[in-house]
Amino acid sequence: MPQNPPPGYPRITPYLYYQDVAAAVDFMVRAFGFTERLRLPGPGGRIAHAEVALGDGVVMMGNPGSERVNHPQVGHATQLIYVYVDDVDAHLEDAKRAGATIITGLEDKVYGDRSYLAEDPEGHQWNFAQHVREVTPQEIQTATAPA
After folding, report:
1. What is the reported pTM?
2. Which residue of 28, 77, 117, 118 lies most exposed, with the fewest beta carbons within 10 A?
3. CA 92 – CA 52 distance, rounded (Å)
């Protein structure tokens, strides 16, 4: 019996729509440190499906076609992908050098992560984080309780 999921794939894998899948792959490799896994050609020389990886995570992507929409078609962010990296400070500098739009700079969060928020050229939002300290649920509730 086949494994579920197939070998090399995490159980949950986001699938994002891009008008220009090839450009999205190139940007994610250059700006966010992903590794390209796969490009499948589609009609007209465009990429129909692609996959990138970071650590044990995989992001799949494809062209929205006429049945689906992506960020530029609706005019606002439609999702946020949360990604853990080993050194979020260095990751931010690499993303800036590669031309990523930084929405929110580095912040230490009450839940123990240090993170920043970026946007790719088609408007998908990416929150990159490094877990820097352990925090109990009670500490989070206390820190976020109304004054």
Report:
1. 0.84
2. 77
3. 19
Alpha-carbon span 114 to 93, nearest angstrom: 14
Q: Is the dihedral of CA 121, 61, 29, 93 positive or negative?
A: positive
Taking only the tens place, the pLDDT of each residue in 44-76 is 888 999 999 999 899 999 987 766 666 566 666
Which domain, by its residues, includes 8? 1-65
- Rounded Cα distance between 119 and 127, Å, is 9
Cα 86 → chain centroid = 15
Report if residue 138 sits inside a domain.
yes
Q: Are residues 43 and 89 in the same domain?
A: no
Confirm if 46 and 65 have CB atoms less than 8 A apart: no
Contact of 34 with 59, CB cutoff 8 Å: yes
State the DSSP code for 104. E
Question: Mean of the per-residue pLDDT values for the chain?
Answer: 88
